[in-house]
């Protein structure tokens, strides 16, 4: 985001100051004259003048004739033709939007700075290559070590260790409980140390445990390694989300997060081929194939972690180092573009230093933010209908007659479908500016497939059963949409830090629920389990619709109050309010 096409240059308007724009923008109405509260993040105008440390802060602007629609630039026309509240177009409020003095990019902050759209596009492409691409590589490493147990199962790991399906369920539950409990503490450590320091430490630590899984001998050692692996991996995902938010605007985040989770499924696809090779080492030095798998893939993750220690910069203005080059990756002008475009998009990103810890008081305030609770509830149940079949995919394929190597190759088609759907639905959500209603597609997709699996007799052709399973595993995954909207609706860095962790904790609890639905006494068709999953599909549709209604209602009430205020009353509110983040009267929730 920067300045629009045309001969004139205008200072780009902060998203929370915009009231109307062209269609599909997440911040403004379009030609159809959407209501000001339609899927809007901010009308965020200003914060308490005496408490800069509690608010975020880009500048106001004198002209609002230009706005950005996603990645294209649209000329809006003269300022007096744009539907907007005069308060948001009034100059002289710059002091309300300044970042805190300790903000790491303060030396590049300039409310009068101007740049061309093409300059910004070049900067974003550079960020994509330097930052987003490597974040995806690190996520590849995470998924490799936490997901390779699926390939190990196809090599008779349970039989070798004398474990049952229920033991596997308990092990996965232990893993996810450990992962869940470590999420928030790990995120708080990351906020204190910086993700660029903490993430590599995590990676090297869990890679050691991942390799040690090659030496487990039974139930106790299996449970122990699952516990340690979950505890060391916990927090990694919200840490990456917070780290990416330093670099990208709110409208750019969903697409980058979709690629983030594409790398997860790319791991599942590539690990199937890796497993096809490594599992053939069974018997080499008297070691089982699944042991080679754990050991060698753990070593690979450790190498990625060591490299990440030297590679990751702490922020957009801190890329210079002996490893990355004395001059860093960006010019001074590019750094100014990065800092100012992010702050003008979301003022909350300037309210803390990226190494500033969350205090206990801040933590409690974030935990008590009831406006975020519907998102946590969605994380708790949204993916239950698809998780059991995904977790049991290799066991299901073995049970219907496919051998070890065919099973690992047959995992690839549903994962490819999953990737396509992830990218498409994430893109569409921003394109049509709709999130919660669109997110019901995953439930509507899964419902008839689960009915089909229930109706399918035991003697049904293996190919038909595989088709239903593959379609269920390749469902429309809307996780990137929900993670992005959690970040957008947080309103402050501290809330974003905590909310990202809490949401992901709920997702891990979702996995715990899902991992205990298919039981030994329900094999091989899992009829009872699939009926439970159908119930979750219905419940989730109602929950998505209810969450949409919740945020729309709040936005409408705030809009009515805001419009009922006189200009002077709005000025007084902006100058004196003690409301913070998403509690402010001029904050609008995305939905």
From TrEMBL:
<feature type="transmembrane region" description="Helical">
    <location>
        <begin position="532"/>
        <end position="551"/>
    </location>
</feature>
<feature type="transmembrane region" description="Helical">
    <location>
        <begin position="291"/>
        <end position="312"/>
    </location>
</feature>
<keyword id="KW-0472">Membrane</keyword>
<protein>
    <submittedName>
        <fullName>Transporter</fullName>
    </submittedName>
</protein>
<dbReference type="GO" id="GO:0022857">
    <property type="term" value="F:transmembrane transporter activity"/>
</dbReference>
<feature type="transmembrane region" description="Helical">
    <location>
        <begin position="466"/>
        <end position="485"/>
    </location>
</feature>
<dbReference type="InterPro" id="IPR036259">
    <property type="entry name" value="MFS_trans_sf"/>
</dbReference>
<keyword id="KW-0812">Transmembrane</keyword>
<keyword id="KW-0813">Transport</keyword>
<feature type="compositionally biased region" description="Basic residues">
    <location>
        <begin position="1"/>
        <end position="13"/>
    </location>
</feature>
<feature type="transmembrane region" description="Helical">
    <location>
        <begin position="373"/>
        <end position="395"/>
    </location>
</feature>
<feature type="transmembrane region" description="Helical">
    <location>
        <begin position="407"/>
        <end position="428"/>
    </location>
</feature>
<feature type="compositionally biased region" description="Polar residues">
    <location>
        <begin position="20"/>
        <end position="36"/>
    </location>
</feature>
<feature type="region of interest" description="Disordered">
    <location>
        <begin position="1"/>
        <end position="36"/>
    </location>
</feature>
<dbReference type="Pfam" id="PF07690">
    <property type="entry name" value="MFS_1"/>
</dbReference>
<feature type="transmembrane region" description="Helical">
    <location>
        <begin position="440"/>
        <end position="459"/>
    </location>
</feature>
<dbReference type="InterPro" id="IPR011701">
    <property type="entry name" value="MFS"/>
</dbReference>
<keyword id="KW-1133">Transmembrane helix</keyword>
<dbReference type="GO" id="GO:0016020">
    <property type="term" value="C:membrane"/>
</dbReference>
């Amino acid at each position: 985001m920067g300045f629009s096409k045309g001969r004139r240059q205008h200072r780009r308007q902060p998203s929370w100051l915009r009231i109307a724009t062209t269609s599909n923008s997440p911040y403004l109405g379009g030609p159809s004259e959407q209501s000001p509260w339609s899927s809007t993040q901010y009308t965020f105008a200003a914060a308490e003048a005496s408490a800069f440390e509690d608010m975020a802060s880009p500048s106001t602007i004198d002209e609002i004739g230009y706005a950005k629609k996603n990645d294209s630039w649209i000329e809006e026309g003269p300022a007096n033709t744009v539907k907007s509240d005069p308060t948001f177009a009034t100059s002289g409020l710059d002091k309300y939007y300044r970042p805190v003095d300790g903000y790491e990019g303060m030396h590049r902050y300039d409310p009068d700075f101007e740049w061309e759209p093409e300059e910004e596009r070049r900067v974003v492409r550079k960020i994509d290559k330097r930052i987003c691409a490597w974040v995806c590589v690190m996520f590849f490493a995470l998924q490799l070590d936490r997901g390779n147990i699926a390939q190990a199962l196809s090599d008779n790991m349970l039989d070798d260790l004398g474990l049952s399906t229920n033991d596997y369920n308990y092990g996965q539950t232990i893993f996810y409980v450990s992962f869940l409990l470590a999420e928030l503490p790990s995120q708080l450590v990351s906020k204190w140390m910086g993700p660029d320091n903490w993430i590599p430490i995590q990676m090297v630590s869990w890679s050691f445990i991942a390799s040690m899984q090659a030496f487990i001998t039974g139930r106790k050692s299996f449970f122990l390694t699952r516990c340690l692996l979950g505890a060391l991996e916990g927090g990694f995902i919200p840490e990456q989300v917070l780290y990416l938010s330093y670099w990208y605007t709110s409208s750019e985040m969903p697409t980058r997060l979709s690629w983030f989770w594409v790398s997860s499924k790319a791991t599942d696809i590539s690990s199937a081929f890796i497993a096809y090779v490594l599992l053939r080492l069974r018997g080499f030095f008297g070691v089982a194939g699944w042991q080679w798998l754990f050991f060698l893939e753990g070593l690979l993750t450790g190498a990625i972690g060591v490299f990440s220690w030297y590679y990751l910069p702490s922020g957009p203005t801190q890329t210079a180092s002996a490893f990355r080059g004395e001059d860093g990756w960006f010019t001074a002008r590019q750094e100014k573009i990065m800092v100012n475009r992010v702050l003008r998009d979301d003022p909350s990103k300037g309210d803390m230093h990226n190494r500033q810890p969350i205090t206990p008081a801040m933590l409690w305030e974030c935990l008590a933010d009831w406006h975020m609770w519907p998102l946590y509830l969605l994380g708790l149940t949204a993916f239950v209908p698809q998780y059991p079949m995904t977790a049991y995919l290799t066991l299901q394929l073995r049970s219907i007659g496919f051998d070890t190597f065919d099973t690992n190759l047959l995992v690839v088609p549903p994962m490819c479908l999953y990737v396509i759907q992830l990218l498409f639905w994430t893109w569409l959500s921003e394109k049509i500016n709709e999130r919660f209603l669109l997110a019901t597609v995953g439930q509507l997709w899964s419902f008839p497939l689960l009915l089909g699996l229930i109706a399918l007799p035991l003697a049904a052709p293996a190919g038909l059963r595989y088709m239903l399973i593959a379609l269920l595993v390749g469902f429309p995954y809307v996780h990137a949409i929900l993670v992005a909207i959690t970040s957008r609706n947080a309103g402050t860095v501290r809330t974003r830090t905590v909310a990202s962790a809490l949401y992901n904790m709920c997702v891990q609890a979702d996995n715990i629920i899902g991992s205990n639905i298919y039981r030994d006494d329900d094999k091989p068709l899992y009829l009872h389990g699939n009926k439970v999953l159908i119930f979750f599909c219905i419940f989730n549709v109602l929950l998505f619709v209810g969450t949409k209604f919740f945020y729309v209602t709040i936005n409408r009430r705030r809009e009515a109050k805001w419009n009922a205020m006189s200009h002077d009353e709005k000025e007084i509110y902006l100058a004196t309010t003690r409301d913070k983040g998403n509690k402010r009267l001029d904050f609008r929730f995305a939905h």
